[in-house]
Design goal:
about 280 residues, alpha/beta, 9 helices, 9-stranded parallel β-sheet, two-stranded antiparallel ribbon
């Protein structure tokens, strides 16, 4: 089993020391989550908590994922990076393709993209993006991103996006796209792409979701192609590593801020070290 560290909610000055520590201690990679902002009040329900409430402090930091990854990539050599997850349909595909293409080059092939459709309707409304069509918009975006990342002259004509011929460089031809989420649409979208990031519930539930994703890939004739499956959960999920591996899960992502006694940099790094000593050795 490979272990990733989720660096979400850390302050800017903590990212580089935590990334260095994660690499030194043997983690496979590091992820960041994404939101542009939070309204002072919203009625949208967070899908991964029992009561629909968000599970992080209201003053938590949400730095730009791509700028942060670019900085951390410069002080590491082996550590991989991904988003977990980035709300793709909240943005336009051109700016996103440019940012990712640039970071992919700076990270020297150590970048993948974890994308999600988003759950915070008010976030979409404030930036003037239709919330109800976000899934269809995202599907087209993924096609557009892959075209733009070739670095070639390309055209595209869809319902939500249309252009051509245009060329964007630098290219980023080897960036894997993973889809996060436990919903049926998310599982179907993951099966059409390069991987799935599930939110851990229990082994039986994850097993059913993983089996469904793999079935959909088989039905599409893509069962023999490389495919990544990971789960995100509390540090306790490591206890289920063998069972998760048996159902095809290749990676577990745990939150850095949950590993130490406080969110202070020294405590976070100490907690990362304790987790690594127990589960990565």
């Amino acid at each position: 089993m490979k272990y990733w560290l989720n660096a979400s909610f850390l302050e800017l000055d903590q990212l580089i020391p935590v990334a260095k520590a994660a690499e030194e201690m043997g983690f496979e990679g590091l992820t960041l989550a994404d939101h542009l902002f939070f309204p002072s009040e919203f009625s949208s329900s967070y899908p991964y908590s029992p009561d629909g409430k968000v599970i992080w402090p209201t003053q938590s930091s949400w730095p730009d994922c791509w700028v942060s990854i670019a900085a951390m990539a410069q002080v590491t050599q082996r550590l991989r990076f991904s988003t977990g997850v980035f709300v793709a349909p909240l943005r336009d595909p051109f700016s996103l393709a440019k940012s990712i293409g640039t970071v992919a080059g700076l990270a020297d092939g150590r970048l993948s993209c974890g994308f999600g459709a988003g759950w915070l309707q008010e976030e979409f409304e404030i930036v003037g993006v239709d919330f109800t069509s976000r899934g269809a918009r995202m599907d087209e975006m993924l096609d557009v991103l892959r075209l733009l990342w070739t670095g070639e002259m390309v055209t595209y004509h869809g319902k939500h996006f249309g252009f051509g011929p245009i060329q964007m460089r630098p290219p980023a031809p080897s960036v894997a796209i993973l889809i996060g989420g436990n919903s049926r649409p998310a599982l179907r979208r993951a099966a059409r792409n390069d991987g799935w990031i599930g939110s851990y519930t229990d082994v039986d539930d994850v097993s059913k979701m993983a089996a469904e994703v793999l079935r959909l890939r088989d039905d599409a004739g893509r069962g023999a192609e490389p495919f990544q499956m990971a789960v995100v959960g509390s540090p306790r999920v490591a206890r289920e590593a063998n069972a998760l591996g048996d159902i095809g899960i290749q990676a577990i992502t745990v939150p850095a801020v949950a590993l130490g006694p406080s969110w202070a940099t020294g405590d976070v790094i100490a907690g990362v070290g304790e987790f690594a000593a127990r589960w990565l050795s």
